Inverse folding.
């Protein structure tokens, strides 16, 4: 444990601000449709570095990893995967920076070609269109399909929703 009273502020502040820094793969950042909004998807690079992430194929059971983030209309939405079981079932959640879960669902990873890291996951989501009117609003049903190649280096995602989208996205 470092005694912070002896660390100069010009070292301590940058260290604390970058404590949760991530390694983003900006060269493979596609423009995507995120619930009918145009967004930049910035994936976290697969790396042995603590700032990178582990491939979802080898993610330990119960571990949550940041896959990437969506940037649109001056907003940032975090894209998390959590492995549920050895049978390749995952929870996929989209969250605000403050930790509010906008939507969450589960699905099974289908490995299409292990030699080139091709896979897909289809997730069924229930979304509340407006969190403040949750009691009055019917949940939106979404089915999202994410497909990737070269272990997430190249990816696509399509979501088909009926009944609207989360209020924060309007």
């Amino acid at each position: 444990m470092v005694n912070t009273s002896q660390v100069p502020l010009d070292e301590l502040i940058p260290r604390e601000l970058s404590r949760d820094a991530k390694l983003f793969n900006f060269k493979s950042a596609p423009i995507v449709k995120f619930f009918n909004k145009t967004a930049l998807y910035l994936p976290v690079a697969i790396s042995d570095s603590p700032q990178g992430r582990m491939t979802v194929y080898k993610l330990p059971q119960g571990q949550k990893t940041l896959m990437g983030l969506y940037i649109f209309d001056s907003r940032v939405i975090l894209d998390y995967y959590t492995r549920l079981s050895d049978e390749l079932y995952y929870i996929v959640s989209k969250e605000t920076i403050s930790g509010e879960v906008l939507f969450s669902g589960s699905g099974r990873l289908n490995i299409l070609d292990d030699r080139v890291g091709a896979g897909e996951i289809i997730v069924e989501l229930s979304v509340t269109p407006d969190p403040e009117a949750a009691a009055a609003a019917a949940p939106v049903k979404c089915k999202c399909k994410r497909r990737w190649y070269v272990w997430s280096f190249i990816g696509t995602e399509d979501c088909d929703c009926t009944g609207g989208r989360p209020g924060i996205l309007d």
Summary: The chain has one helix and nine strands.
